[in-house]
Specification:
Number of strands: 7
Number of helices: 15
Largest sheet: 5 strands, mixed
Shape: elongated
Distance between the termini: 61 Å
Keywords: Membrane, Transmembrane, Transmembrane helix
GO molecular function: identical protein binding
Strand order of the largest sheet: 2-4-5-7-6
Protein name: Sensor histidine kinase NatK C-terminal domain-containing protein
Helix content: 55-70%
Length: about 450
């Protein structure tokens, strides 16, 4: 087997990884096509030309891949996660299918003739093993929600990630140099070091993701606990004032002072509004997606800071497995819309926001408005539906329909009239099912 053949097999490994593991999750479809083109040109130049520029396209691939991931996800941690996953899967698949048999041949455990006969089978097995490992990583990621947990981490750890990335690339190229210099013992040592570095990195990221999810759950429970204490205090005060409230109300009615009685009832209602309103934090417990849950926690805090009355309704539990679109795209879409509605309400005298997540048999229905549901008819008219890209860009939400158009059966509607707005998102369920119970 010649060097061009082995180099082309390694390029096929990269093609498998960017399409079956990275496409639409770590990179967009367009970015994946660009990376694939570089790899294909690399293969063509290997077999057609014997020039020093053979490795140019592979070098461009190595440079552009992390840039594309950071540009798409805006997360340095996820970029490092993918590069380390890519490295560990390639090294592992080659180690058990080709590197170890070659090592056994060098120490005399396998004859060179037998190894030569086994090479076609070993190389085919390497490609198959890599594909199986990719499927395993996808299953494991879905089970542990590793990607989802890291996707919403606020800190980027840029310098740490850059150091770890350069260390990975340096050790990887040092390992390849050991092959060319025919120093097989150095090659094996560097392989063990790389696998150890990958294992430590993956385990650290896993622990960090678990820690992040636990901190998020604690924050939700803590906020709900504080709200419950406030409600208990308010209920105790209301219980002590109950007799005097009734006496005052009866006095107004007996004297036929109906306007004063009505005003008194409204004042009592305003006083106990926090007790009567459903707790937003309690609603968040039904949204079983930590990154989106964290985004809504920030939204609630922003509303409280800006004095905006917020009403969140999530009647059914919604899980990560229900979301059919990319988690990154769903977070970006929601973040853009939530920022817009807060800026919109900051200019209003009556500050109120209504947010609804509802799971239906075939879709997840999201409504965001500054009007209560019974007033939707005032604005939900064809004349108020804004679809023009230029107008949407003026409002700062043009990116949302652009992201959603990449997904079948996902829809976006934006109604606006005299600062009254209604936004409706319809996201198809990953698996159409019966609506779950609250």
């Amino acid at each position: 087997m010649t060097f061009p053949f082995f180099a082309s097999l390694l390029t096929l490994n990269y093609l498998q990884l960017i399409w079956f593991l990275g496409n639409k999750k770590y990179t967009t479809l367009r970015q994946t096509i660009v990376l694939s083109s570089l790899l294909i040109f690399h293969i063509l130049f290997i077999f057609l030309f014997n020039t020093p520029f053979i490795g140019l396209f592979l070098f461009l691939f190595i440079v552009f891949q992390p840039i594309f991931i950071v540009r798409h996800l805006n997360s340095w941690l996820l970029m490092a996660l993918f590069l380390y996953l890519q490295s560990s899967l390639i090294i592992t698949s080659w180690l058990f299918t080709y590197d170890l048999p070659v090592y056994l041949s060098r120490i005399g455990k396998i004859s060179p003739e037998l190894l030569q006969q086994l090479v076609p089978f070993l190389l085919s097995t390497q490609q198959l093993l890599l594909f199986v490992l990719i499927l395993f990583v996808r299953w494991l990621d879905q089970k542990l929600q590793l990607f989802d947990s890291i996707a919403h981490v606020q800190k980027n750890y840029k310098m740490t990630v850059l150091f770890l990335t350069f260390l990975l690339i340096f050790l990887y190229f040092l390992r390849q140099f050991a092959v060319y210099s025919i120093s097989y013992s150095s090659f094996l040592y560097l392989t063990v070091i790389l696998l150890g570095l990958n294992s430590v990195f993956h385990f650290t990221v896993y622990l960090y993701s678990r820690y992040y999810q636990e901190q998020l759950r604690k924050l939700v429970l803590s906020q709900q606990y504080n709200n419950d204490l406030d409600k208990i205090t308010l209920a105790d005060e209301f219980r002590h004032d109950y007799r005097s409230i009734l006496v005052s109300l009866v006095g107004y009615i007996e004297e036929y002072r109906m306007e004063e009685a009505s005003a008194f009832i409204l004042s009592v209602t305003d006083y106990s509004k926090n007790l009567l309103d459903e707790d937003s934090y309690d609603q968040l417990k039904r949204l079983m997606i930590p990154p989106i849950q964290g985004l809504l926690l920030q939204f609630i805090e922003s509303c409280e800071k800006n004095g905006i009355h917020l009403r969140i309704s999530i009647p059914q539990k919604i899980y990560d497995a229900d979301i059919s679109i990319s988690l990154i795209d769903s977070i970006r879409s929601l973040s853009t819309l939530l920022d817009f509605i807060i800026k919109q309400q900051n200019t209003e005298s009556k500050k109120q926001i209504y947010l609804t997540f509802e799971k239906k048999p075939h879709s997840i229905f999201i409504e965001l408005s500054n009007l209560p549901k019974q007033q939707y008819s005032e604005i939900k008219q064809p004349d108020y539906l804004i679809t023009d890209k230029k107008n949407l860009k003026t409002f700062g939400i043009a990116a949302v329909p652009m992201m959603l158009k990449n997904y079948r059966k996902a829809s976006f509607a934006f109604y606006f009239n005299h600062k009254k707005c209604l936004i409706i998102l319809t996201l198809p369920l990953k698996y159409a099912s019966l609506v779950s119970e609250p």
